[in-house]
């Protein structure tokens, strides 16, 4: 093992000290094993610009934070809690002597909120920044504002093994690079992508590696379930098989990280927490299952779910590099070499995908409810911010202006999601502190009961309390121990005692409803062929309990966990909700909407919780603007065919639309279908009267509404430029047929009525010749033309030859130029 004095990072320490002496923000790139996390901070403690102040190191994971602090302290011959300490959620090893503090889980943000100047801190290091965690991005944005407004002497060092090449330029910061000391790693692929469970594939590869290769083995799996399954499949191998994941007790984490005291080979089965930061002594072989489990937030449903997907190329490189930290190594990739270039290059920043409710509340408390006020590397998406604001308003954490309320500030005292914090504060205020602590802990941890145990959260509270008293409750003891540890921390923060009484299921439901107000649900009436247990959530989504679940007969539920299916989600965890508790959340709202089934305007007052309507009563007066808006929405949804266009209205519209096309600079209104739909409220609204149904809409006279669209003197100009009729040589006034597309209008007239007319008639001030439909005596078109002169000189004679025998009573002169135009036959016309 390299000593601190020989670590590669020391090669660039002089340059880094020089950069930090003059620059507020510096970027450092160093490969795994270079010592950037576990040695570099020690070299900066005596720098003049630090002036005896603290160094804070932000790590993205608790396991890494503890391990980094332990290695730094070891470099000084100390234990954590002296010169070097750490602080993670519910755990702290610091003292008055601590100069380097490794923190995670929003600890830095909490400190910034309480002390924006970061008094006593001279340097903040953001480690493993390539992961682009939400906390790291928020911390960087806040620190840059602190540097600009309060602390021009505060230094920030951004570090990682791999970085976006554009990052230094985006931060306007110098880049320092350490080459490190990486040993060669042989990468072995499968001949084809495997089929089957990843834990089976990893176990086979680990057994193969133990036979073929030297050194300890680090295997990557997507989650805890797969780790335990693979551990069972590796029973009997000649090695210690140890798990490594975030919720593992500290003692077991240390067993995985340190060499086996007896010198036995070791197999560490880890989640993605082992990709970076952590150094696991003795690893010469990496087995990469090729999968990663991440949280995915769906703004449409407001649900976050764990998604298992392919590892990205940069993460695969990080994993493989673990095999070459101390000696040449081997990396087994459990996919084909053909698949490798098809993997995603990297994961997008967490800020682009995550639930932004915690960040939005932090920004509101910081005094920046508008995220645009901060300098982000990637600004949080506006739609997700709006989703977060809606949730936080429902939790009473934000006011209508987006500012943090007193409750919002209180929620930030709890190191958890605002939902869970709101459950805790509400439970404590209602004298339900012990139950709130237990429910919150259960919601944050894995389910302690085995599959098939039903969905009732109250059963989990009972199992926890029975286990706490030493009675068998049927739950997993390891999971229950973690739940109790977390519940104990919540009780401490709430200042409440423990309780092992049988829980009131309705009280459990009321607490869940505080955390998930949009997931309170009422039972849907049983439908033909469908079982009970189908519910409507306040958020508008459907949800169904598993077949035969004990809660299926409940009239109302508070749902905690369900999948994010769009139509009808599956409920995994819920509690019964008292109908009175549901009514406490309900409010009276005026509802004016269009009923597509009956084709009528529905106006009523509704006592509702979100999409759930508990009671209705007629709405006596409908505000005009609301009625117009609702009817306009109905027309947009069902189409303009709801309106009746009389021939006069249709032609008026076509005439105006023609002028809109022909004279774009003359401000003629656009009356196309889309334009009319877009402006319904403006042109149709004043003429809707008391319309409340499809029949009423169909009876509306549209011509007055259309005519109101024209400004003076456009009505007169309309008659001049786009007349409804034209006079022809026979003396007849013939109607013109205009079209919406701006084409020439059609003049359909009997051929004999135009004898002697040389030029094609025009509209639009002489600019647009009409399209002549020359008719036979029977009124059928015999020629379509916009060049009447050419017709008389050529095509007329072909027409004459074809028709004069069929219509002998009508004139077919040899010279159409001199014959008198007529609308009569020879006998009557002479």
UniProtKB/TrEMBL annotation:
All copies of domain Helicase C-terminal, residue ranges: 205-367
Pfam families (alphabetical): CON_HrpB, DEAD, Helicase_C, HrpB_C
Molecular function via GO: ATP binding; helicase activity; hydrolase activity; nucleic acid binding
Alphabetical UniProt keywords: ATP-binding, Helicase, Hydrolase, Nucleotide-binding
Entry keyword GTP-binding: no
All copies of domain Helicase ATP-binding, residue ranges: 17-166
InterPro entries: CON_HrpB, DEAD/DEAH_box_helicase_dom, Helicase-assoc_dom, Helicase_ATP-bd, Helicase_C-like, HrpB, HrpB_DEXH, P-loop_NTPase
Protein name stated in the entry: Putative ATP-dependent RNA helicase HrpB
Annotated organism of origin: Deinococcus deserti (strain DSM 17065 / CIP 109153 / LMG 22923 / VCD115)
């Amino acid at each position: 093992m390299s000593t601190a004095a020989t670590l590669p990072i020391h090669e660039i320490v002089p340059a880094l000290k020089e950069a930090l002496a003059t620059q507020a923000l510096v970027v450092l790139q160093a490969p795994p094993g270079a010592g950037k996390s576990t040695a570099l901070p020690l070299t900066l403690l005596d720098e003049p610009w630090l002036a005896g102040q603290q160094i804070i190191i932000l790590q993205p994971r608790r396991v890494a934070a503890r391990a980094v602090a332990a290695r730094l302290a070891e470099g000084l011959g100390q234990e954590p809690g002296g010169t070097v300490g750490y602080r993670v959620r519910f755990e702290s090893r610091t003292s008055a002597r601590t100069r380097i503090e490794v923190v995670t889980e929003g600890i830095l943000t909490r400190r910034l909120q309480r002390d924006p100047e970061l008094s006593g801190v001279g340097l903040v290091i953001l480690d493993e920044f390539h992961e682009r965690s939400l906390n790291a991005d928020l911390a960087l944005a806040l620190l840059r504002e602190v540097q600009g407004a309060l602390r021009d002497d505060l230094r920030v060092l951004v570090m990682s093994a791999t970085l976006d090449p554009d990052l230094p330029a985006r931060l306007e910061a110098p880049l320092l690079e350490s080459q490190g000391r990486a040993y060669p790693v042989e990468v072995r692929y499968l001949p084809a992508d495997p089929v089957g469970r990843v834990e089976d594939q990893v176990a086979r590869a680990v057994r193969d590696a133990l036979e073929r290769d030297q050194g300890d083995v680090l295997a990557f799996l997507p989650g805890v379930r797969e780790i335990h399954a693979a551990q069972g499949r590796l029973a009997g191998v000649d090695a210690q098989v140890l798990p490594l994941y975030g919720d593992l007790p500290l003692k077991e984490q240390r067993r995985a990280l340190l060499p086996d005291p007896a010198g036995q080979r070791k197999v560490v089965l880890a989640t993605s927490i082992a990709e970076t930061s952590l150094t696991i002594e003795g690893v010469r072989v990496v087995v990469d299952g090729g999968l990663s489990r991440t949280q995915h937030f769906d703004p449409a449903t407001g649900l976050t779910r764990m998604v298992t997907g392919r590892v990205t190329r940069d993460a695969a490189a990080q994993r493989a590099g673990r095999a070459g930290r101390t000696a040449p190594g081997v990396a087994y990739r459990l996919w084909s070499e053909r698949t490798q270039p098809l993997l995603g290059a990297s994961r997008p920043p967490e800020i682009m995908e995550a639930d932004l409710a915690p960040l939005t509340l932090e920004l509101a408390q910081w005094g920046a409810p508008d995220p645009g006020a901060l300098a982000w590397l990637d600004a949080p998406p506006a739609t997700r911010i709006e989703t977060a604001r809606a949730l936080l308003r429902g939790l009473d954490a934000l006011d209508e202006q987006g500012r943090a309320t007193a409750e919002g500030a209180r929620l930030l005292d709890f190191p958890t999601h605002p939902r869970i914090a709101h459950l805790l504060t509400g439970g404590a205020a209602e004298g339900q502190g012990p139950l709130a602590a237990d429910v919150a802990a259960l919601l944050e941890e894995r389910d302690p009961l085995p599959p098939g145990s039903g969905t009732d959260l109250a059963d989990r509270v009972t199992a926890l309390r029975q286990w706490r008293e030493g009675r068998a409750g049927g739950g997993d003891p390891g999971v229950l121990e973690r739940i109790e540890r977390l519940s104990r921390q919540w009780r401490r923060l709430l200042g409440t005692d423990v309780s092992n009484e049988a829980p009131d299921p309705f009280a459990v439901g009321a607490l869940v409803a505080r955390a998930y107000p949009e997931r309170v649900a009422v039972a849907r009436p049983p439908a033909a062929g469908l079982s009970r247990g189908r519910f409507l959530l306040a958020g508008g989504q459907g949800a169904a309990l598993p077949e035969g679940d004990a809660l299926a007969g409940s009239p109302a539920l508070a749902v905690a966990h369900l999948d994010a299916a769009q139509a009808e989600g599956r409920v995994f965890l819920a509690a019964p909700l008292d109908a009175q508790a549901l009514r406490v959340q309900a409010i009276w709202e005026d509802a004016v909407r269009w009923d597509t089934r009956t084709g009528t305007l529905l106006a009523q007052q509704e006592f509702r919780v979100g999409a759930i309507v508990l009671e209705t009563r007629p709405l006596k007066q409908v505000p005009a603007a609301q009625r117009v808006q609702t009817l306009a929405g109905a027309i947009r949804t069902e189409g303009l065919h709801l309106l009746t266009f009389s021939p006069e209205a249709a032609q008026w519209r076509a005439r105006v639309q023609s002028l809109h096309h022909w004279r774009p600079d003359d401000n003629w209104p656009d009356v196309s279908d889309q334009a009319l739909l877009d402006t319904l409220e403006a042109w149709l609204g004043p003429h809707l009267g008391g319309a409340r149904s499809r029949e009423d809409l169909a009876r509306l006279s549209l011509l007055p509404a259309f005519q109101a669209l024209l400004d003076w003197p456009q009505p007169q100009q309309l008659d001049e430029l786009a007349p409804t009729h034209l006079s022809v040589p026979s003396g007849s006034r013939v109607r013109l047929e205009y079209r919406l597309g701006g084409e020439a209008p059609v003049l359909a007239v009997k051929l004999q009525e135009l004898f002697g007319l040389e030029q094609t008639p025009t509209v639009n001030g002489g600019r647009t010749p009409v399209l002549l439909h020359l008719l036979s005596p029977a009124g059928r078109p015999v020629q379509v033309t916009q060049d009447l002169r050419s017709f008389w000189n050529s095509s007329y004679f072909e027409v004459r030859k074809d028709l004069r025998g069929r219509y002998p009573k009508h004139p077919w002169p040899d010279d159409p130029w001199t014959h008198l135009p007529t609308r009569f036959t020879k006998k009557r016309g002479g």
